[in-house]
Amino acid sequence: MRGSKKESVKIPKFSEKTVHEYIILLFYVIASYFTMRIHFLLGREYAPSRLTDLALGKAALPFQFRMLVPYLVRFISILTKSDIITTYASLEFLFLVGLFIAYRNFLCLFFKRNLADIFPFVLAFVLPFNYGILTTMFYPSDFPAIFFFTLALIAMYKEDWQSYYLIYAIATLNRETTCFLTFIYMFVFFRKMSITKLSLHLLIQTAMWLGIKQILYQIFRNNPGGLYENHINANIKMFLEILSFKIYNIVNLLLNFGGLWVLAIPGYKNAPPFLKASTLVLIPFIIGMFLVGNLYEMRIYGELLPIIVTLSLYPISRFIEQKETIPTKIKDNQ
Questions:
Q1: What CA–CA distances, in Å, run from 30 to 36, 108, 177?
Q2: In the predicted model, is pLDDT for residue 221 greater than 90?
Q3: CB atoms < 10 A from the CB of 247, how many?
Q4: Which residues neighbour 72 within 8 Å (Cβ) at sequence distance 6 or greater?
Q5: How confident is the model at residue 1 (pLDDT cuts 50, 70, 90)?
Q6: DSSP states of 303-321 as a string?
Q7: What is the spatial distance between Cα 88 and Cα 70, in angstroms, rounded to a whole number?
Q8: pLDDT band at 212 (very low <50, low <70, confident <90, very high)
Q9: At how many degrees (to 10) do helices 305-333 and 261-270 cross?
């Protein structure tokens, strides 16, 4: 028509910061996908806790207590009429993407932003060791447990108690290892809070944990199994084999977290007080897992990942920073 004007198509402009965020997210998504594929490829189901039985609420205890992911899978499968195993894989992929993002936010508390962007890719190296190479036992609660643990540590660091207690409650429905968050809380805030306030927080968390466990027990009390599995004899045997220099057990422990835990020892020196205090959780963790977990099963150490692996990144960050300062020093000398 005469007099009509051509409408110009407006192309949205993205800032450099926005483009950077999308690129980082894309690589996190790719890393999450391949980590999930490796986990499903190398993992094998444990007979008392088969994935289908977990989703139907028929698995043995204590595995059925970890109901969050299986029941989400059941709900999504009914809603979308999708295959249960496919739904498990899809949900694990989403939790892994969430873990990469959460771990990046956790690292931002301690490192420069450029390092905090790159360092989460260490998960793509560490996770296949503990959940596929060293331990083939497959549990759908494993990666979500690390995700929730990381979120809870962020909330604890920021003293965002509303978020912390919400995460604590949801995470306990996923796995009972949230009790170690209470120990970390105690170690971090000892002498930072009044005894009255600290005791109140510890009491609330303990009551929440016991209350949720009691509710879960009442729901699944007719399932086979018990409140926990006794692994004391197996762990004693493992220690005896290590003392007798059985190579398998020694290599297995050395390769925990892909062997990065070795760097956590020198990393401890430069770590902030929050991380240093958090490492004390190793004491109740080892004692607890000696009683109810297999210490040679590397997947049980997952919740320690945000602490141990982060400590191991300090020597790496110092190496990178020294490399960056060398050209500047040379230029100054010229």
A1: 10, 21, 29
A2: yes
A3: 9
A4: 91
A5: very low
A6: GGHHHHHHHHHHHHHHHHH
A7: 8
A8: very high
A9: 60
SS3 192: coil
Q: Give CA–CA dist 98/111, Å, rounded.
A: 19
Mean pLDDT (the chain) is 92
Q: What is the rounded distance in angstroms from the CA atom of residue 134 to the CA atom of residue 119? A: 22
Q: Which two tokens stand for residue 334?
A: 């010229």
d(CA 328, CA 267): 25
Q: ∠28-31-32 over CA atoms, to 5°?
A: 85
Listed residue (328, 305, 245) closest to 96, CA to CA: 305
pLDDT of residue 60: 96
pLDDT digits (tens, 9 = 90+) for 113-168: 999 999 999 999 999 999 999 999 999 999 999 999 999 999 999 999 999 999 99
Q: Which of 59, 58, 56 is nearest to 71 (CA)?
A: 56
Cα–Cα distance for residue pair 28/96, rounded to 1 Å: 9
Contact 87, 52 (CB under 8 A): no
